[in-house]
Amino acid sequence: VTIALTDIDHVGIAVEDLDAAVEEYRRLLGVEPVHRERVEDQGVEEVLFAVGSSYIQLLGALGPDTPVGRALASRGPGVHHVAYRVDDVASALDHLRAQGARLVDEAPRPGSRNTLIAFVHPKTMGGVLVELVEER
Amino acid sequence: VTIALTDIDHVGIAVEDLDAAVEEYRRLLGVEPVHRERVEDQGVEEVLFAVGSSYIQLLGALGPDTPVGRALASRGPGVHHVAYRVDDVASALDHLRAQGARLVDEAPRPGSRNTLIAFVHPKTMGGVLVELVEER
């Protein structure tokens, strides 16, 4: 059994001012964003730009006391997490758990775009907060 | 004219101990790395794991006084840069320059895997050090 990462789903980038960052990316890339969604239970609003089969995800915090708000306060803007696409988040979590990985989410939960997601602790994969994404 | 990012080429992850990180990723992902290369002029040794059409790039510093060595000293391990694949690095740089982007490399230079690359300053794209990669 392997974890079978099928693609990079997205790179999540924490930004101070979501609208300003979206405008900057639109201007630099010359393309329109493909999705915008407010995810209350994660305390973020996200905007996606498509890049091949992956996305650039710009993340604005819904308040200072949210994961992205705290990341902005401590480290400033930049990459917040890397998300890998998998066929089955539950079995990927089982595999990682069996390998002794430190998980943030012990079970899959709903993400944006009607996905199932789970986060893996940054201590596990070289200092990178990792998200697993299953498209449904 | 747009910059036309065709894919995420790789996510570059700075690690303290390259061999230990490679072993950890092998074990967690259950796959072998596809490439290893020492890039003297960038002061790094890189190991690539394939994920769909993209790569996870683990980066070990060749010394403390290198870009990755300094990043490790100041911020610890984690995402060092995000690389986007383009058809033509030179024209992507022209487009970014015309948009007022702050560039690290004013012209394409050789990268690993016989690619042409250029880096864009993190101030330009939301706090993220961006690399453009043209496969040849």
Question: How would you summarize what this structure contains?
Answer:
With 136 residues, chain A is α+β, with helices and mostly antiparallel strands. Chain A has helices spanning 18-29, 67-75, 89-98; strands spanning 5-15, 35-39, 44-51, 54-61, 78-86, 109-110, 116-120, 130-134. The longest helix of chain A is centred in the first third of the chain and has 12 residues, at 18-29.
Characteristics of this structure?
homodimer; 136 residues
What would you say this structure looks like, in words?
With 136 residues, the first copy, chain A, is an alpha+beta fold. Chain A is built from 3 helices and 8 strands. An 8-stranded mixed beta sheet of chain A has the order 2-3-4-1-5-8-7-6. The first copy, chain A, is globular and about 45 Å long. The two termini of chain A are 22 Å apart. The relative contact order of chain A is 0.20. The interface between A and B is large, with 43 and 43 residues.
